[in-house]
Amino acid sequence: MTSTNPTLDLAGGATAPPAGRRPARRSSYRAAETRRKWYEIIGLTTPAVIVYVMFVLVPIGFAFYYSLFRWRGVGPPTDYVGFDNYVLAFQDPIFLDALRNNAIIVFGSLLIQGPIALGVALLLNRNFRGRTLFRLLAFVPYVLAEVTVGIMWKLLLSDAGTLNALMQAVGLGGLVQAWLADLDIVIWTLLFVLTWKYVGFAIILLLAGLSNVPQELNEAAAIDGASWWQTQRHITLPLLGPTIRIWMFLSMIGSLQVFDIIWVTSVPAVRSLGASATMATYMVDNGFFARLWGYGNAVAVILFVISFVAALIFQRFLLRRDIQGAVTGRAK
């Protein structure tokens, strides 16, 4: 005679529940776990999304809206001009000079700061006495405030500044220049100041990348008879590629949006002629001080679009391999 209790066998012992009950319980647990994870994701990302929308997307939308009007900042904008502000910007030779100056700063920063930072980082990565002090000195200019750097170099490079006085004192009076007033050399002077300021950041970033290069590879190469230069070329630099590309991306975007050092160091009269203007300084000069708020917003939108497109192109062709590698590694 069998037992009527489905959970008991003939000896009265416990048996497993019916087969259909366990999968249903497991699927409900998985559904609850999935809902809990989504609640966590929504709860953690909602504040960041709200902040991003309020302080990034909404201002961009308002900037584009105001750029369609001829508006001086008083009362609501009513004089709709469409895309005339954009046309005026590209017809202004001063704005075109600002575009050219931004391009000079972008390529100059990559071609000058990059090799200098890489060479110094490779040297500072070697063991020698005083290495920590030299690392600190290389990073000091970057931690200084941009306004401080601008004022300091403006005093040094003025017509009666320290640099010209020093050149005259050592018999190099023929090299004395109006470093910040000569229309032909002012942008190169500002590029030197920017290089002095930001090369320390590139050095520290590359040193961080060098610390992740396995020392065993260098030792194996030395055992195989490779010289120091061959080791750097065939082992260190390829492994340092992702760090170099990240620095290039940050340097490019920063150079497109550079404002503070240019604004503080340059002479307003020279900047108004376009010799030392950038898109950011042009936007402030013609939007804020000239009270052409609609036109200034159009310049801001142009700056945003150029930076955004440059970032997309850089990510598409240079950072894609690094991003795919990071995603693949995380998926594994």
From TrEMBL:
<feature type="transmembrane region" description="Helical">
    <location>
        <begin position="38"/>
        <end position="66"/>
    </location>
</feature>
<dbReference type="InterPro" id="IPR000515">
    <property type="entry name" value="MetI-like"/>
</dbReference>
<keyword id="KW-1003">Cell membrane</keyword>
<keyword id="KW-0472">Membrane</keyword>
<feature type="transmembrane region" description="Helical">
    <location>
        <begin position="246"/>
        <end position="264"/>
    </location>
</feature>
<feature type="transmembrane region" description="Helical">
    <location>
        <begin position="136"/>
        <end position="156"/>
    </location>
</feature>
<feature type="transmembrane region" description="Helical">
    <location>
        <begin position="103"/>
        <end position="124"/>
    </location>
</feature>
<keyword id="KW-1133">Transmembrane helix</keyword>
<dbReference type="InterPro" id="IPR051393">
    <property type="entry name" value="ABC_transporter_permease"/>
</dbReference>
<keyword id="KW-0813">Transport</keyword>
<dbReference type="InterPro" id="IPR035906">
    <property type="entry name" value="MetI-like_sf"/>
</dbReference>
<comment type="similarity">
    <text>Belongs to the binding-protein-dependent transport system permease family.</text>
</comment>
<feature type="domain" description="ABC transmembrane type-1">
    <location>
        <begin position="99"/>
        <end position="314"/>
    </location>
</feature>
<feature type="compositionally biased region" description="Low complexity">
    <location>
        <begin position="11"/>
        <end position="21"/>
    </location>
</feature>
<protein>
    <submittedName>
        <fullName>Sugar ABC transporter permease</fullName>
    </submittedName>
</protein>
<feature type="transmembrane region" description="Helical">
    <location>
        <begin position="292"/>
        <end position="314"/>
    </location>
</feature>
<dbReference type="Pfam" id="PF00528">
    <property type="entry name" value="BPD_transp_1"/>
</dbReference>
<feature type="region of interest" description="Disordered">
    <location>
        <begin position="1"/>
        <end position="28"/>
    </location>
</feature>
<feature type="transmembrane region" description="Helical">
    <location>
        <begin position="185"/>
        <end position="208"/>
    </location>
</feature>
<keyword id="KW-0812">Transmembrane</keyword>
